[in-house]
Amino acid sequence: MEQCESVEREVDKVLQKFLTYGQHCEQSLEELLHYVGQLRAELASAALQGTPLSATLSLVMSQCCRKIKDTVQKLASDHKDIHSSVSRVGKAIDRNFDSEVCGVVSDAVWDSREKQQQILQMAIVEHLYQQGMLSVAEELCQESTLNVDLDFKQPFLELNRILEALHKHDLGPALEWAISHRQRLLELNSSLEFKLHRLYFIHLLAGGPDKQLEALSYARHFQPFARLHQREIQVMMGSLVYLRLGLEKSPYCHLLDTSHWAEICETFTRDACSLLGLSVESPLSVSFASGCVALPVLMNIKAVIEQRQCTGVWSHKDELPTSDSNPPIKLICGHVISRDALNKLINGGKLKCPYCPMEQNPADGKRIIF
């Protein structure tokens, strides 16, 4: 975590410099454009009058050219100074992180380079589709010659279309989708359809007394949900009493909270992904987060194995050096190592855990069976 914070501090410095430079650049160019605009007006006026260029105006033109040159040189120099800050970010990354993460496992673990590239590209494309960056995903598919079936893209296209509508406070597409998938949503014990109807009812309430009759008429949609959501329906119907006085100043003002829109987006994403067999979280994001947690531990294991001169333990295609003949052993401190590693680490009848300073009897280790 300290390493991440160290790099983050350098990134923050660069971002601050970019912000300051951008503001200074914009101000300088605006002043320059204003100055040039005034000079252009004076030259146009002199041309209309048919008078020759005066010595004063000629001097002003020379000064303007010099000012333009000086301003451009100053901006270029300031921009060049930012390069050193950007370079420090790279140095901070190199200083705080081990770049040789591929050495954690044998090369035999991975498939061919072409297969690796295809898997990575597919993971990135799926991530882009899931994040709604459809045009970027399509561009990557074209440039990488990756063939993605329409059947694979269709669920993401539909989800993003509905989410885009929800972000614009348009409940129509989401309600249509929920109604068409009502039975399957009920099987998942989902309350998505009710929440969509509730939010539409609240949307009508926000329209004031003019929408009261429409809200009462729409309330019939709550009938199928009366058994499970009786209390919430009672609250919404009770809010009609304060409609003419203004809900924002009533005990029901919480109904107008804008957080309901963010909540419905999360509910729709979770339930729709569950129904369609998709992961709510991007597989690429999950893999990245898992790697951030697992890699430091694996690299520590690798360093200990190399230090103890038992590199032969980790030379197979398994991710971890465990198998039926070399099972994982849980130490009394709670850490787990392989049996071969345990035997190699024994010194004078005692075993020191590679992860903590606890010394223990090797015979106290217990085999773990998955």
Automatic annotation (TrEMBL):
Q: Which GO terms describe its cellular component?
A: cytoplasm; GID complex; nucleus
Listed A to Z, the keywords are: Cytoplasm, Metal-binding, Zinc, Zinc-finger
Q: What highest taxon heads this organism's lineage?
A: Eukaryota
Looking at the record, the residues that make up the CTLH domain are 155-212
Q: Which PROSITE patterns match?
A: CTLH (PS50897), LISH (PS50896), ZF_RING_GID (PS51867)
Name a GO molecular-function annotation: zinc ion binding
| Example GO biological process | proteasome-mediated ubiquitin-dependent protein catabolic process
**Matches recorded under Pfam families:** CTLH
Specify the protein name.
Answer: Required for meiotic nuclear division 5-like protein B
Q: Which organism is it from?
A: Myotis myotis
